[in-house]
Amino acid sequence: MTTGTGTAPSLPPGPRRSVELDRDEALRLLGSVPFGRIVFTRHALPTVRPVNHVLDGGDIVIRTHDGAALTAHAQDGDGAGVVVAYEADVIDPDSRLGWSVVATGYARLVTDPAELARYRALLVPWTGYAMDHAVRIRPDLITGVRLTAGA
């Protein structure tokens, strides 16, 4: 990668390494940021959408609208839901240090009116769409890495 001047960006001196995070630390970091990316299958191909989220008892909750592909998939999925991945990160573009977390599990449409009302209060949409639905992701697998300076 080069900068607009044609020179490579400078990085802080020293080696870097990737340190795996345990489940609790990965969830803590995921809960510390408001945005991430949901990955699901659409027309047999992977689809990625940026969304905002809230962490609720280890589950990731996002809001969706009627026309959203994920809303339809989560509705049409059998009782188990549909397989998705959710990724969030904070990586400094200059130092290239930070962290990344990926949660993989089943997404289900929230159908209980009381739960839906609670998520509507907790999670304000960041787009102009009327977000009338919520999708809960129950992660089965959570992986994460911290990118650190050091030997």
Keywords:
alpha+beta, 8 strands, 151 residues, 8-stranded antiparallel beta sheet, 3 helices
How would you state the average pLDDT, rounded? 86
How many strands in all? Answer: 8
Order of helices and strands: EHEEEEHEEHE
Shape: elongated
List the helices and strands and how they pair.
Elements lengths: L15 E5 L2 H9 L3 E8 L2 E8 L1 E3 L2 E6 L4 H8 L5 E10 L6 E12 L3 H10 L10 E17 L2
Antiparallel strand pairs: 1-8, 2-3, 2-6, 4-5, 5-8, 6-7, 7-8
Could you explain how this protein is built, in words?
The chain has 151 residues and is of the alpha+beta class. Helix content is 18%, strand content 46%. The chain has helices at residues 23-31, 69-76, 113-122; strands at residues 16-20, 35-42, 45-52, 54-56, 59-64, 82-91, 98-109, 133-149. Strands 1, 2, 3, 4, 5, 6, 7 and 8 form an 8-stranded antiparallel sheet that branches. It starts with 15 loop residues before the first strand and ends with a strand. The mean pLDDT is 86.
Task: Describe what is shown at a glance.
The protein is an alpha+beta fold.
